[in-house]
Amino acid sequence: NPALGVSKKVEDLERKVARAKNNPNDLTGILTKDFNIREVTNSAWLTFEAINNESTFDIKDFAGTYAIGGADLSITTDLSCATLLFVDPETEIRYVHQMYWLPEDNLRKRVDEDMIPYDKWYDQGLLRLCSGNTIDYSDITDWFLEMLNDFDITPLWIYYDNYSARYWVDEMEAYGFKLVRTPQGARTLSLPMQNMGADLEKHKINYNNNPILKWCLTNTGVETDRNGNIVPIKNQSPKRRIDGTASMLDAYVGLFDSYEQFLRAM
């Protein structure tokens, strides 16, 4: 760095390097700002030890409560996922309840080609099938209504990615749900993703040992810009989905935006 020893002190740089050794998320900022190396890098997000949490809960325990919703919707081959996020005000443990969807016509192909046990997850009730070869967004609406009508679980807000179909948003709002559009860029996602990662590492997120979400989390990489902002990306092949991560992160954006208001409602 040409400024080293002039406007930048060697001791300060040494401290930054030492910090990056303990926190990989700081590495990109140091490489780009202090060593003039490439602006964006991709890397794994979390270790399996950080992700793995075998704690479980019963969704019935949250009957009559409020939640924050998240939705990551696809059109054809990708999973679609909806999330309900709860917080225990006393312990601040986060509880995540999810449902996944896949087009029925694509199930066999996805199992055979991707070598992922979607059929087993369907048998376990963790995944639902949409008729035909595309995702029927009304099936996702039905799930939110099911949570409301069967368990009296009310999502105060449902944060959705901005690629979602407008007619789904209109349909949900017609039922009285409050939807919040969530741009999928670093400005919106970086801080909530950092918070979510820290909570996962502390095992503060009980996701009911859901194998689909666990799989999505292990597939999640991180793209870091020169300012240290992060966004999720697929860490491996396109067959490895991250939709569960994206859906939970959308809900985390809501938690980040309205944490105190949400706790008061709880």
From TrEMBL:
Source organism superkingdom: Bacteria
Molecular-function GO terms, alphabetical: endonuclease activity
All copies of domain Terminase large subunit-like endonuclease, residue ranges: 1-252
Pfam family, one: TerL_nuclease
Matching PANTHER family: PROTEIN YMFN, PTHR41287
Protein name: Terminase large subunit
Gene source species: Staphylococcus equorum
Taxonomic path: Bacteria, Bacillati, Bacillota, Bacilli, Bacillales
